[in-house]
């Protein structure tokens, strides 16, 4: 027989002799086990390069795969013990970190501990890293277990000690047993062990392992079933603990916010930042609101709770996409045990329109594409939704600066107007059509109507949009001589191709948009007043991004996540200084400029966190100038009683809170600061805010 000469080489007959080894054959849970054959397979495995995926005879595939992981992971096959930490501080930390798991296991361990005395078996509890945090059972076995560091502080994952009941159960996520020679390390081959993973009832993650161990003669086929049943009992106890904590946190929230409105969204997170209660909040990454007891977001990780539990630290710990919510620390028995995130209710597309007609899914999807919560934006969305649901409005004018997202509103009207899946949406930029081709593009032409005309004739965009929506962007660019013909089509619902006297009926809803002030254009004689009043009977003004307050942060997070998903990267994080600068910037290019910025940062950022120095000069300079102005140029002093700056600032915040009924977005706008800065000030001055 060949033997390797590396650290994983092992000669026959070098097993520890502290206990008699089982010989011959045992039936292990319907699997034949041959001690000598398994030993020969192990020696043969070590003598060759562990590259073959073929399972040796007499060795289960589960064991062979674990041997392979152990060998390629650098585990010493001659090892006689697991790593052990005897540092008191580290053991104390482990105990605190796993307090819930230890508490849940206490009842099961207490009942089984008395039964194991004299059986030669011990029951151990390990955390998610395979480190033992509790052990009970036969006293002699507990004593002997310390020879291989099978005691509190011993590390038994596969990366530390190779194939064994604890580590391999962690790896596979299933109840398993590892018997005698099936262990990878020689010093453990006189032992048998059966381990079962323990999963967190909230999110299903493995948080520990319960394991029954002893010398090999204690093996019984039902050992695996015993530890699996014990693991289930511990999981049941964990679920009861979590339900009790959930109830207590809800009670703590109710007592701290008695005026919380039922329509507001609410998420309660536990001390690990996981959602344990959700009501009327977005489901996952969508904007669809969900009510009822199903709680689709429950168990989802949302944030890291800071140790201090102060309002300021909690606000800073919130991810950017959650900074529009109110956050309140929740303490139990004086310790921070969770937090409440309240999302103030905002008008949204309801399940029915004002006419009572059921809103289709296309309308809800289109509305979800318009990201923002500012009053001006929501008012514009409401008008567009009403127009979409009305059969009497045949034209709509959308006004707003370049880049505000006017086409999204046109698509919203189209989505709400659709009667079939094939209803067309035709979008044309009037600024991109030459003056000579306007008539042909809008109304079409017959064969030979003019030089260069199509031989077969051509329908215009009105005919192409028949039965759907025609979006004319930048309608202010429409030549004055073409405007009467457009007005005629809108009035008669007939289109005449150039060179044709026959009228063709069209059923088209016109959505016109412009970045100009059409009233001024009418006054200057560049736009017909009759056409203006025809298309502007119902109008929508889409607000500029600088007038939308914290919508900047919502859009920043929206584009950040969308681009990260498209590129397969993690979303970027933004420092508070960077967020302050983004909020303070005027955004002349509006939403389009913000989207381009996020795309640029995803390409050029050197790290995962964006600071002030990573932003373009025109954005970062404004924030620096603002800070310099506040620090270098004292304002004119009012003739009022002298008080400290802190007193004046505290009073100004209180006045703004009262004036805006506790709406932090409006308070921040009124004070001219960002929401993160407002959160810091609230914590600094100890100002409590209710949910009004």
TrEMBL record:
The keyword DNA-binding applies. Residues 370-603 form the Sigma-54 factor interaction domain. It comes from the Bacteria. Keywords: ATP-binding, DNA-binding, Nucleotide-binding, Transcription, Transcription regulation, Two-component regulatory system. Pfam families: AAA_lid_14, GAF, HTH_8, Sigma54_activat. InterPro entries: AAA+_ATPase, AAA_lid_NorR, GAF, GAF-like_dom_sf, Homeodomain-like_sf, HTH_Fis, P-loop_NTPase, Sigma_54_int. This is Sigma-54-dependent Fis family transcriptional regulator. It comes from Mesorhizobium calcicola.
